[in-house]
Amino acid sequence: MFKKIMSLFIMISLVMGTISVFAMDVNSNNVDEQVVTVSSSYDIAYGGSDIEMDKMFDEIIVKIREYKKNNPKASDKKLDEYTEKLLNGAVKKNNSKKSSTESGEVTVAYYNDMNGYITGHLNSQEQALYNSNKTKALLCMANGKLAIDYAEKNYITSVLHNGNGDAFRHCLWNYGMAIDVGQDFAKKWGDAHEYGAVGQPLIERNMDLFNNAVGLQLAKDNPWTIWHSTFISKSKEKCRNGELRIISNNVLVKSSSVGEK
Amino acid sequence: MKTINRCFTGLLCIVILSTLLAGCGFFGKKIAVLVIENQADEQIQNVRIQYTSSKEVVEIGALKPKEKYEHTINNEQEDSITLYYTDSSGVEHEETAVGYIIKGMKGTTVLLIKNDNEGKWVVEKKK
């Protein structure tokens, strides 16, 4: 009897294993089942878990900012200890506030996945910087995320890579990073992003580094910037005035207002 | 003997459950996908996509009416993708397929190629 049950289980396992192999085949024609929603900001449809991870990331950033605000004299070490706790799920969400997760509570398991989620977006040089100061690294990433959103809200799709939208994004990103984490770490992160990138053409790196530098200078010139609208308008102005660089016919040229929404 | 049998059955159950979860994509590798669908009533030719930075070209060829093609996006580096196709009148079209690829990007972008009532060819991003 036992042998029969075992044989049945093994048969089921083999059948399900075969099904799972087909389910993993991304070139299958079951496209409709894979499409969930299309996010306007990323031109991309996210699966449920990615939306959740995105929310978790935003929650962690909010918590870090709250902690920084409530502990203005906290050292980098203290901040990093707090961030580490957040990433490891040791800090539970305050129940008095409404959670952004569907379950209404942030669970330890969710936060435990964050490290993998975050490092999946980093190149090797960014990874090294992330390990050296997770708080600042996360804030740099948050600024990057915002810059992508604002670029997509302010520029048409065709100029988001190598065009005015791209130039604006890098300027805005570095402006925000420098205000958030200081010039030194912002410059390091921006450089790590460019020099650690694999397969990026030299002209694209030069374009990005140029526009990063303009963003860093904007932060120096406007160290007390708070409002997102100010960050956006000043970066857009730089782009319109031709003070940023874009790629046209494989040459770096001055930016313009082309592609603005 | 009974205890051993129970343990073994338990282990088997775990194996089966894991396989089932894998089948549902629970542990599946998340990727970025571009889907191109010809929703026109006519065949389109010379369909290809090109990455801006890496210069990689994916030749798709012809897409029959209602036929779709699925491409796994290389999300290892920053890039963008342009779609090219030739309509039934022999006119070549160019469209930004994915405006900006960020490292580690996931999800699905769907492009629907249509021929509207006035005979104009348009590419719609499905929501």
Order of helices and strands of chain A: HHHHHHHHHHHHEE
The total of helices of chain A stands at 12
Q: Indicate the radius of gyration of chain A in whole angstroms.
A: 22 Å
What percent of residues of chain B are in strands? over 45%
Cα distance, first to last residue of chain A? 71 Å
Low-confidence stretches of chain B: 23-29
- Strand % of chain A is under 5%
Order of helices and strands of chain B: HEEEEEEEE
What is the share of helical residues of chain A?
A: 55-70%
Outline of chain A: globular
Q: Mean pLDDT of chain A, rounded to whole units?
A: 79
Folded structure, characterized:
Chain A is mainly alpha-helical and 261 residues long. Chain A is 64% helix and 3% strand. Chain A has helices spanning 2-23, 31-34, 48-70, 76-87, 108-112, 114-119, 124-132, 134-154, 164-181, 183-195, 202-221, 228-240; strands at 245-248, 251-254. Chain A has a two-stranded antiparallel ribbon. In chain A, helix 3 crosses helix 8 (134-154), helix 7 packs across helix 8 (134-154) and helix 10 (183-195) runs antiparallel to helix 11. Chain A is globular. In chain B, 28% of the residues are buried. Chain B has one helix at residues 2-23, and strands at 32-38, 44-51, 57-63, 68-72, 79-86, 92-101, 107-115, 121-125. Chain B has a 4-stranded mixed sheet with strand order 4-1-7-8, with no helix packed on it. In chain B, strands 3-2-5-6 form a 4-stranded antiparallel sheet, with no helix packed on it. In chain B, strand 2 (44-51) and strand 3 (57-63) form a beta hairpin. Chain B contains 1 helix and 8 strands; from the N terminus they run H-E-E-E-E-E-E-E-E. Chains A and B meet through helix 1 and helix 8 of A and helix 1, strand 1, strand 4, strand 6 and strand 7 of B.
